[in-house]
Write a structure and sequence with these properties.
- By secondary structure, this protein is an alpha/beta fold.
- It has 2 domains: 7-98, 60s Ribosomal Protein L30, Chain: A (2-Layer Sandwich), CATH 3.30.1330.30; 106-262, 3-Layer(aba) Sandwich (Alpha/beta knot).
- The chain is built from 13 helices and 11 strands.
- The chain has helices at 7-14, 18-24, 32-41, 53-58, 60-68, 78-84, 106-110, 125-137, 155-161, 176-185, 205-208, 225-228, 248-262, and strands spanning 26-30, 46-51, 72-75, 91-96, 115-119, 142-145, 170-172, 189-193, 199-200, 212-216, 233-236.
- The chain has a 7-stranded parallel sheet with strand order 7-6-5-10-8-11-9. A 4-stranded mixed sheet has the order 1-4-2-3, sandwiched between helices.
- The protein is elongated, with a radius of gyration of 20 Å.
C-alpha cells in the first residue's frame, strides 16, 4: 500500500472515533507491543495487520506469527501507516471487539473468579489502561467497566494496556446494578477503595483472602455514594505523607496486589 488517501486507509483511521468503532465492532491496536499480544492471544479476532518494511524487519516475529496464524498482513509505506495512526510506531492492527472478552457475558466471565477490578466512573484513558495492565500483572480474573465510564477500545486506553487487554477478559457496557448483582451471584465480596473507609488496607489480610471485587471510582470525585453504599466493606489506603489522595491507578495497584498476596 502506497497511498495515504486510499479508502481503506481512511476507514482504518476512522476507528479512532467511538462512533465508527461501535458501528463496525472493530478497534485499533497501535505499536509493536500491543499488536504482538493481539496476534499471539486473540488472533481469531484480528482482521488486518499493517507494517512498514522497517518495522517488519525490526519486529520480524510479529509478521511471522501473523502469517502463521493466517492473518491478513499488509506491507505499507510509512506515510500510509502514519495516516492510519500517528501513534502506530510502524505497525497497527484492526481487531474485532469480541477480543475483549472472547464473546463471553458478564456471568460467564465471573464464574470462579477470585479477583476482579471494577471501574465505576473512570474517565481518563491512561488511568483505565494502566488499571487493566495492573490487573493483568496482579493475576486478576477480569476487569469490568461500568457503563458511563471510558471506552476500553479507545486508542489511548488500548495503548496504555501495553497488550494486557488481550490477556484477561475486559467487559464494558453494563449498568452498576447489573454489575453488582453479577458480582454477588459469583460469590465475590465488594470492597470499595475509598479514603473514608475505616478498614486499613494494610491490616486487612483476613478480609482480602476471600474472592474480591474492588470498586474503583472517578479520578477527581472518588467513589459515588451509591457505589459506596453497595460495598460490603469500605477500605482506605493509609497516607503517610502530605498528599491528599492517590491517583486511582496507583490506588488500584495497591489494592489488587494486596488481594493477590492475601489470596496466595
Amino acid at each position: 500500500m502506497s497511498s495515504p488517501r486510499a479508502v481503506r486507509v481512511r476507514r482504518v483511521a476512522g476507528l479512532a472515533r467511538r462512533q465508527a468503532r461501535v458501528k463496525h465492532r472493530r478497534f485499533l491496536v497501535e505499536g509493536p507491543q500491543g499488536v504482538r499480544e493481539a496476534v499471539r492471544c486473540a488472533a481469531e479476532h484480528v482482521h488486518d495487520v499493517y507494517l512498514t518494511p522497517e518495522t517488519a524487519e525490526r519486529h520480524g516475529e510479529i509478521l511471522a506469527e501473523a502469517e502463521a496464524a493466517g492473518l491478513h498482513t499488509h506491507m505499507a509505506a510509512p506515510e500510509v501507516v502514519g495516516a492510519m495512526s500517528t501513534d502506530a510506531q510502524g505497525v497497527i492492527a484492526v481487531v474485532g471487539t469480541g477480543a475483549l472478552a472472547g464473546g463471553a457475558g458478564l456471568a460467564d466471565v465471573l464464574t470462579g473468579a477470585h479477583l476482579v477490578a471494577v471501574l465505576t466512573q473512570t474517565q481518563d484513558p491512561g488511568n483505565a489502561g494502566t488499571i487493566i495492565r495492573t490487573a493483568d500483572a496482579a493475576g486478576a480474573d477480569a476487569v469490568v467497566l461500568v457503563r458511563g465510564g471510558v471506552d476500553p477500545t479507545g486508542p489511548k486506553v488500548v495503548r496504555a494496556t501495553a497488550g494486557s487487554l488481550f490477556h484477561l477478559p475486559v467487559l464494558a457496557g453494563e449498568g452498576l446494578e447489573a454489575v453488582v448483582e453479577a458480582l454477588r451471584s459469583a460469590g465475590l465480596q465488594l470492597l470499595a477503595a475509598d479514603g473514608r473507609g475505616r478498614t486499613d488496607l494494610f491490616d486487612a489480610d483476613g478480609l482480602l483472602a476471600a474472592p474480591t471485587a474492588w470498586m474503583l471510582g472517578n479520578e477527581a470525585r472518588g467513589l459515588a455514594p451509591g457505589v459506596v453504599s453497595r460495598a460490603d466493606t469500605v477500605v482506605s489506603i493509609p497516607l503517610y505523607g502530605r498528599a491528599e489522595s492517590l491517583n486511582v491507578a496507583s490506588a488500584a495497584a495497591l489494592c489488587l496486589y494486596a488481594s493477590a498476596r492475601a489470596q496466595r
